[in-house]
């Protein structure tokens, strides 16, 4: 029984890991110099942690066909707002 449970957990972890790796990657300004810019995206009214912002930006970047993004603006009030440059 433990083997079946372990196998199921491992399978689930690998599926989650694969899905996460499909997202666009966060890069810094130096890394972005070697990439081709392709526009920008922004997210607003995000509550939670900075990791939630990163996830929302990565999701939008991936939907736009970007392989990477660089955060260019990040503000916090009642909600988070962030803008990112997209790269191929």
UniProtKB/TrEMBL annotation:
Pfam family, one: YdgH_BhsA-like
Stretches assigned to the YdgH/BhsA/McbA-like domain: 35-88
Keywords: Signal
Keyword Transport appears in the UniProt entry: no
Annotated signal sequence range: 1-22
Domain of life per record: Bacteria
Database matches in InterPro entries: BhsA/McbA_stress_biofilm_assoc (IPR051096), Dodecin-like (IPR025543), Stress_YhcN-like (IPR047775), YdgH-like_sf (IPR036275), YdgH/BhsA/McbA-like_dom (IPR010854)
PANTHER family in the record: OUTER MEMBRANE PROTEIN, OUTER MEMBRANE PROTEIN-RELATED-RELATED
Protein name stated in the entry: DUF1471 domain-containing protein
Organism of this sequence: Siccibacter turicensis
Upper lineage: Bacteria, Pseudomonadati, Pseudomonadota, Gammaproteobacteria, Enterobacterales
């Amino acid at each position: 029984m433990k083997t079946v449970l372990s196998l199921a957990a491992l399978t689930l972890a690998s599926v989650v890991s694969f899905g996460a790796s499909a997202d666009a990657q966060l890069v810094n300004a130096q890394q972005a110099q070697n990439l081709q810019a392709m526009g920008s995206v922004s997210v607003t009214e995000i509550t939670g942690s900075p990791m939630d912002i990163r996830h929302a930006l990565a999701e939008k970047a991936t939907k736009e066909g970007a392989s990477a993004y660089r955060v260019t603006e990040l503000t916090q009030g009642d909600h988070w707002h962030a803008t990112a440059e997209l790269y191929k």
